[in-house]
Amino acid sequence: MAGGDSSRFNGLLTPPDSPLALKAQQLKDKASEAAASEDSHKGGREWIRHPVSWPQFKQYVDAQNLEPLGRSLETHTTYEIAMAAKRKEYGSVAKYLTTHVLPEFIASTTALGFDPHSALAADDFHLLVNDFPYYLGDDVEHWVLWCRKRLSPGFAAPAAAIEAIRVKFGSGVEWRYFVNPVAKQSVPQLSHAHVFVKRA
Known about the structure:
single chain; 6 strands; 16% strand; globular
């Protein structure tokens, strides 16, 4: 295509003047500026330069330190564009999720007899693969554990969540769980945790 080289995202060629390629270039420019400064370490969970190994990831989570974690630049770029598109079309990401991703699960919260304040049970949870996973090595899987009841931020998985994880994956896997602080949650309206699984 005339006008410059194409950029590759998720195995697809993207024209250089597309929103995805332009956003990627903006993020790369920011990365170059950060690298040139003395304090180029990037915290938070926006994007990171290198994948985090499973042993290192476990150390971070066990120390309750989430700052080194994030998505790759490619995944972060596609995430930002996808979220913007969902907000434009549906008014909010939560509206999109309740309409197209979790309609039956969310509908169950209005069923007769549902008590949002009752004790958690395994069927209060629903596991889905994260479409925009954190940048992890060693074939680690990143899942979202949606919950019909409010989960508190932190690293201690409730017993019912542990049961739901074991029902899904069995006992032959290693996993880690956390609920982001509210300020770091992309969809705070819908209660969810992050679950990371390393199969044997």
